[in-house]
Amino acid sequence: MPEDNSTIIAKAIQEGNEEVFKAFFRAEFHNIRFFVNKYLNNFFDAQDIAQETFITLWDVRRQINPSLNIRSYTHTIAKNKALNFLRDTTKARTGTLSAEENAINRFALSHPSVSEQIEALELEQQINRVYSLLPEKCRESFILNRKYGFTYDEIAKKKGISVKAVEYQIVSAMRVFKNKITLFISR
Q1: What is the number of domains present in the chain?
Q2: I want to staple 150 with a disulfide (CB 3.0 to 4.6 A). Which of 30, 154, 182, 183 is the partner?
């Protein structure tokens, strides 16, 4: 199976490649800060936690599993750091309205939907891997049909092939998706 960008990035960071880490930091820092800020409602604290997230990522780089999505791994670190921050500030400010707000935010971060968002990143990576496994003609027909809503007839006309050929390509793509995604979900 060809390696996708996430796997290549994860391996490079795991091996201590500072240039790849810096590029990943530049690409993902704002996403992590935005993610954390949704729960803290404090830009400066969110920025600090985002920076701490990347420091932790670098510190634990040897433990990174390259087969898992590096973005979702980073979001998980950020989620845990935000939860710790909220717990600590709640302890420091007990009895204030801010403590109640922190409790609500801590609950929101602990909610399964946050984990589902992180798992969705992993699923997205797996879907992209499956796309890369498909033969080019199958991939094109499948994307035209599923992503852009083209009918089999429209795809056939656009590609200059028969409707049966389009049907075969899409059914073939569906088989690959079914097998690979089922394996991913059952792990």
Answers
A1: 2
A2: 154
